C-alpha cells in the first residue's frame, strides 16, 4: 500500500451546503488533510474546492483527463432526482445542478489508476436514484439516504479518522479500511462498487498509536463475531471483516493461520459473491501470499492452479488456528 502520487493525482471537493456548519467545517478540514504534507500531500493546485460553480461538470472532466494516479470526487450536499429519475447533485444556486451522469462519464473516460467517489448527502427520491451510484472501476463511499444521517456525518467521521488515526489500522489508512471503519461508526451500510483494489492506495498516514498486534487480532475477531450475529455469515460486510481479521492474524506473527483463514474466506467469497469477484480474487492472492510467508513456497506456487477447496498447501504447514472468530 502507498499514498497517492502528488503530481499524478487530482481531487475535486464540493461543499454545497455552506450554511451547514458540519459540511462547511468538515469540507475545510478535509481539504486541509488532502493538501497537508502530513496527510495526502496533494499540491493545492491539484485539489479544486468548489461551493457554487456553473462549470463544475467541466472541472470534474478536466480533473479526470489530468489524473494518472488518484482521481477523487467528493460531494457534500443534497441530491435530487429529476422527472426521469436521473440523479442530480445540487449546488447553493437553484440552477445549475450537476447531473451525476456527468461524473460517471468523466470517471469512465479517466486514465487514473485509482478512482474514488465520495457522496455525503441526503437524496430525495432515493428509490429512483439508488441504482445510479455504481461507477465503473471506481470505489464509491456513500452516506446517502432520504432519511437518517444528515449531510456532513460521513465527512466528520472521515476527518476524525484521518486526523486522529485508528489504532486498529495499519501504518497507512487505505480506502478499504476507511470504508469498513466508517460503516461501523455510522451504523449503516455504505456502498463500495467492485473494481479497483481498495487496499492498494491509502488516503493518509495513520497517526494513532498502534495497539499491540494480539489486541488488534482480538478486536477484529470480536467484530467478526458481532457482525456475523447481526448480519449473518454470508453478508458482504462480514466477509470484508474476515479479510481484515485474517490480515491482522498474519501481521501478528501467525502466517499459517492467516493462510488458513484466507483459504476459508476464498471458499465463502466464491460461493456468495462469485469466483471472479474482487473479494474472491483478493482472498486467493492473500491465501497464496501467507502460505509462502509461512514457509511453504512450493504449495503457494501451486495454489493458482488448484481448486478453492484444496487446502493441501495450507494444512501441510500446520496452522495453529489461533485468534479465529
UniProtKB/TrEMBL annotation:
Alphabetical list of InterPro entries matching this protein: TPR-like_helical_dom_sf
This chain belongs to which protein, by name? Caspase domain-containing protein
Q: Which organism is it from?
A: Actinophytocola oryzae
Amino acid at each position: 500500500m502507498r499514498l497517492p502520487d502528488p503530481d499524478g493525482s487530482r481531487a475535486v471537493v464540493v461543499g454545497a451546503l455552506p450554511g451547514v456548519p458540519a459540511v462547511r467545517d468538515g469540507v475545510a478540514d478535509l481539504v486541509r488533510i488532502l493538501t497537508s504534507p502530513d496527510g495526502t500531500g496533494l499540491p493545492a493546485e491539484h485539489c479544486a474546492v468548489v461551493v457554487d460553480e456553473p462549470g463544475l461538470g467541466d472541472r470534474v472532466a478536466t480533473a479526470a483527463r489530468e489524473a494518472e494516479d488518484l482521481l477523487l470526487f467528493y460531494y457534500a450536499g443534497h441530491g435530487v432526482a429529476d422527472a426521469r429519475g436521473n440523479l442530480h447533485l445540487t449546488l447553493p444556486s437553484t440552477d445549475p445542478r450537476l447531473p451525476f451522469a456527468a461524473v460517471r462519464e468523466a470517471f469512465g473516460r479517466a486514465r487514473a489508476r485509482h478512482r474514488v467517489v465520495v457522496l455525503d448527502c441526503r437524496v430525495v427520491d432515493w428509490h429512483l436514484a439508488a441504482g445510479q451510484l455504481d461507477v465503473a472501476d471506481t470505489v464509491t463511499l456513500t452516506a446517502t439516504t432520504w432519511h437518517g444521517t444528515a449531510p456532513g456525518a460521513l465527512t466528520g467521521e472521515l476527518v476524525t479518522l484521518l486526523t486522529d488515526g485508528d489504532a486498529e489500522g495499519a501504518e497507512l489508512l487505505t480506502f478499504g479500511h476507511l470504508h469498513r471503519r466508517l460503516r461501523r461508526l455510522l451504523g449503516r451500510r455504505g456502498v463500495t462498487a467492485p473494481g479497483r483494489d481498495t487496499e492498494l492506495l491509502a488516503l493518509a498516514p495513520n497517526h494513532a498509536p498502534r495497539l499491540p498486534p494480539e489486541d488488534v487480532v482480538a478486536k477484529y475477531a470480536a467484530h467478526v463475531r458481532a457482525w456475523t450475529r447481526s448480519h449473518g455469515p454470508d453478508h458482504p460486510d462480514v466477509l470484508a471483516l474476515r479479510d481484515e481479521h485474517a490480515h491482522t492474524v498474519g501481521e501478528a506473527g501467525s502466517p499459517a493461520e492467516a493462510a488458513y483463514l484466507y483459504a476459508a474466506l476464498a471458499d465463502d467469497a466464491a460461493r456468495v459473491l462469485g469466483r471472479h469477484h474482487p473479494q474472491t480474487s483478493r482472498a486467493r492472492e492473500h491465501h497464496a501470499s501467507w502460505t509462502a510467508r509461512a514457509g511453504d513456497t512450493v504449495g503457494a506456487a501451486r495454489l493458482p492452479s488448484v481448486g478453492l477447496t484444496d487446502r493441501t498447501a495450507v494444512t501441510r504447514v500446520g496452522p495453529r488456528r489461533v485468534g479465529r472468530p
